[in-house]
Amino acid sequence: MNYKSLTAKTVSLIIIACIILLHGCAKEKDINLIIESCDEISSVFSFFHELESDGNYVISSFEENGCYVFELSTGTSVGLPDDCVEIFEIDDTQINIVFDKGITLSIPYGHLIQLKYSHNPSGYTPLSGALELVSSIDGTLELTIHHISDSTKNLIQRFDHPAGTHTYPVLGLFFDHENIIEANFIANSDTLERIKIIESTSKRPDYLPSIKVTKKDMDKMEPGMNMISYRAKWDPTVAFIIDNDGLVRWLLDYQGHPELTSMNFDVGIERLQNGNLYFGNWPSQNLYEIDMVGNIVDQWSIPGFEFHHNIQEKENGNFLVTANKFGSQHEGGLWAIEDFILEVDRHNNSILHVLDLKESLDEHRRTMGTDEFSGVIDWIHVNAVIEDPSDNTIIISSRFQGIIKLDYDNNVKWILSPQKGWTENRRGQALDQYFLQPLDASGNAINDPDILMGYENHEEFEWPWFQHAPFLHENGNLFVFDNGDRRNFAVDQRYSRAVEYKIDEENKTVQQVWTYGKERESGMYSRIVSDVDHLPTFNNILVSPGSRVLNSGGEYGGKIIEVHYDTKEVVFECELNAQGIVFHRVERMSLYPE
Known about the structure:
Blueprint: H1 8-18, H2 24-29, E1 32-33, H3 41-53, E2 58-64, E3 67-72, E4 77-81, E5 85-90, E6 94-99, E7 104-108, E8 113-119, E9 129-135, E10 139-145, E11 155-161, E12 164-170, E13 178-187, E14 190-200, E15 210-216, E16 225-230, E17 238-242, E18 248-252, E19 270-271, E20 277-280, E21 286-290, E22 296-301, E23 305-313, E24 319-325, E25 335-336, E26 340-345, E27 350-356, H4 357-360, E28 371-373, E29 376-378, E30 382-388, E31 393-398, E32 402-407, E33 412-416, E34 437-439, H5 449-453, E35 468-472, E36 478-482, E37 497-504, E38 509-516, E39 531-535, E40 540-544, E41 549-550, E42 556-564, E43 570-577, E44 583-589
Parallel strand pairs: 1-4, 25-29, 34-38
Antiparallel strand pairs: 2-3, 3-4, 5-6, 6-7, 8-9, 9-12, 10-11, 10-13, 13-14, 15-43, 16-17, 16-44, 17-18, 19-20, 20-21, 21-22, 23-24, 24-26, 26-27, 28-29, 30-31, 31-32, 32-33, 35-36, 36-37, 37-38, 39-40, 40-42, 41-42, 42-43
């Protein structure tokens, strides 16, 4: 809003004032009078109400020659005859005028401040709102969301506010509760405006899982809340955030949205470097950026391809995307799916790189299994892609072929997988030359053929089986969630692990340096989906098995486990009970972007 210009309505009021018979002060100072007669007090109220509605305000005021003069932010001045006024008072922020019969008008003075709250403005985040702040000066907006039961857990968020009109998200309300929201505008250490909002919210949706926090040591936990990309509900899939008590504090549900009412984000939603959220929509060509109140901020398309599973932001802001290519054929004649990697330039919505994994890997290897249905073959089933910025390469996780590192020219750098069944790619390159040699804890080569092939485990080394969610630790090591499905080509090894591998690319070796989960057996076993992340504040690892995990009381669902890296002490654990896949990914994050 331009505070230096008059709107049509304000101009009309000024013109009306101009044609009124001028009072003495107006004649001498060329000031427009608001009213001619003291019988027209209602016009004074209308004038100042319209002035404020248009974003204008009184800069200063003084009495001169029988008039109270008001200098406006529009650059003009207006006058009010003093014989219509019984009391005229000015303080630092307000002018109070008392007319005949005790009628009182209060006018903001010196600067303009307006606060306006709207609940769930997009219609898709029922525990969120937006606060519009209009001010003529810089300051700080302080929001307080009162906790449902414990004032020591009130959520406080501050925003730097430059003069003008800006809208801020209000996050962290509770379901089925009269939420109390306090908003303060502070400038020069003074609270200049304060509002209190009471917002009644709807009941918690029945489709959300039951949630039970079984362990919580706040002094040892990573700050933040947990975002769950929930898969037990479809059409659309939804995402929600829980606090450390297991209470839902944010929900994204695009039911009824003209474009996303059947959304399936597959692996899930994550946060961009700019603080917004992003995801792909399967099965479609569309990728999305949204804000925390559910508004679509930007979107991109991948024509000729279809998104599946994972989209990952690179350090330079581009996206790595796992994709299907329409019409891409396996050598057996079937449509091959889930075997392309794209790099998308999100600034100009162009595809920079296309990697067809049938060219670089062995599309005929079925050692770990494959899926065929209705003229389609899923021979690799890529479920994740990440970048390695240290050498400008990518790492993919695939259900049926293991973990592979490639460059952007689609050349294999190494293969981390049981070594059984590999032959050559379409280029005629033998793929065994890219195997990583496993080492024991002392750095000695493990050469037992049964271990190399995957039939047996070494006490200090195991291959990953049907793994998910790779990430590179700041120390350069590779973490994955090792699901353990069909471990050692059998069905009796029912445990999952978070595992860390140290890879020496020059010598093509791999060493298992940390693992957690095997000891928990079925209490952490998830044969599909699941996540692992590093939490830096206390050097914790967030391990999140996401499907058919045995929970307390014989129920099944997913778990969120925060464990200390060095001691393996569990500092937080939460059970989410629901049928089928509960989630692919869980992210520890601040509710408000940092």
